[in-house]
Amino acid sequence: MSRDQSTYRPETLTASRPLLWIAALLSVVMMAPVAWLVGLSIKNNRELMLGTESVFRLPYTLVNYVNILHSSQAFGWFFNSMIVAIGQTIGVLVLSSLAGYAFARLEFPLRRTIFVIVLFGLAVPEQAVIIARHQMFNWFGLHNSHLGLMLPGMSSAFGVFLMTQFFRAIPKEIDEAALLDNASQWRIFWKIMLPLTLPAQATLGIFTFLHAWNDYWWPLISATKKEMYTLTIGIASSQTNFAQSEGLGFLSAQAVFASLPVLIVYIFFQRHIVTAVSGGAVK
Fold first, then answer.
1. CA angle 44, 46, 50 (to 5 degrees)
2. Does residue 71 sit in the same domain as residue 105?
3. How many Cβ atoms are within 10 Å of 54's Cβ, its own excluded?
4. What value, to the nearest 5°, has the Cα angle with vertex 215 and ends 210 and 217?
5. How many whole angstroms separate alpha carbon 54 and alpha carbon 48?
6. For a Cys staple, 91 with which of 154, 177, 214, 233, CB 3.0–4.6 Å?
7. What is the pLDDT along the chain (283 residues), one digit of tens a residue?
C-alpha cells in the first residue's frame, strides 16, 4: 500500500464527520440572514405589512426588482458607489505597488524609518482624524464629489505592507539577471516584478473594493447632497424616511441589488485570494 493510499483511511473520514456537520451547520447559520433577505425581496409589500412570516409561503413576485429598474435614485447611488469603489481600488493598487516595490527593492535615505511611520497608520483609527480630514476637504471644496469620496481610502497602510512583503518574497536573483541585461528599474518593476504579484494585487483589490463599497462612515460625512449618496447612504436614508411608503420588500430588493457587485467580484477573483494566502505567487 502506498503512502497516499494509507493516508485516507475509513476511520479518518469517520472521525472528521462531526467536523463536517459542524461546518455545514455554521454555513447554514451564516446563510440564513441572506436567504431571509432574498425571501423578503421577492414578496409583495402589502403581504409583508401584515406579517413577515408570509415569506415562507407563496406567491412570490419580482415586482420589487422591477421597481428598482424604474427608480433613478437607486441607479444614481449605484453609479456613485461604482465610481468610488473602482477609483479607490485602482488608486490603492497603484500607490501600494509603487511604495511596496520601493521599500522592498530600492535603497534610499530613511527607508526603514519611513516604512515604520507608514505602518503606524494601521494603529490610527479613522475616527481619530475625521475632524481634521473634514476641515481639509472643506477648505479644498472636495465634499459632495467623487474625488472627495475616493481620496481618503487611497492611503492604505495595509496595502503598502502587503505589497512590500510580497516583493520581498521574490528572489533577488531575478533583479540581478534583469540588470545584467541592461533593464532599467522601471522596466524591472513593470515587466518582471508586477506580474509576479498579481495574486497579492487581486487580494488587495478585492479587500479595497469591499471596503469602499460598504463604507458608510466617510460618505455619511462627506456626501450631504442626495445626488451624491452612495448605495450604503441611500439605502439607509430610505429605511429611515420611506420604509413605510416604499415597503420592506422594495428595501430588501435594494439591499440584494447592492450586494451583487461584491458577489461578482469575489467569484471572479477568489482563486487569486487562495493563491496569495497559500504563498504560491512565487515558484
1. 115
2. yes
3. 17
4. 160
5. 7
6. 154
7. 444 444 545 555 565 677 777 877 887 788 888 888 888 888 887 777 777 777 777 888 888 888 877 766 778 888 999 999 999 999 999 999 999 999 998 888 888 999 999 988 888 888 888 898 999 999 999 999 999 999 998 988 999 999 999 999 888 888 888 888 888 888 888 888 888 888 888 889 888 998 999 899 899 999 988 889 998 888 777 765 555 555 778 888 888 888 888 888 777 776 766 665 555 444 4
Compute the distance between CA of residue 274 and CA of residue 225 in angstroms, rounded to an integer: 40
Q: How far apart are CA 234 and CA 30, in angstroms?
A: 25
In a domain, 202, yes or no: yes
The answer on 158 and 31 residing in a single domain is no
Query: Does residue 248 lie within any of the structural domains?
Result: yes
pTM here is 0.79
Residue 179 Cα to chain centre, angstroms: 37
Tell me the three cell numbers of residue 23: 461546518
Radius of gyration for the chain, computed over Cα atoms and rounded to the nearest angstrom: 24
Clarify whether residues 119 and 143 are in a common domain.
Answer: yes
Residue 65 sits at φ, ψ, to 5 deg, of -70, -35
Of 160, 161, 163, residue with least CA distance to 199: 163
The grid coordinates of residue 229 equal 449618496
All cell numbers assigned to 6: 494509507
The three-state secondary structure class of 110 is coil
CA torsion sign for 237, 207, 80, 130 is positive
Domain range for residue 22? 3-56
Main-chain dihedrals φ then ψ at residue 175, nearest 5 degrees: -60, -45
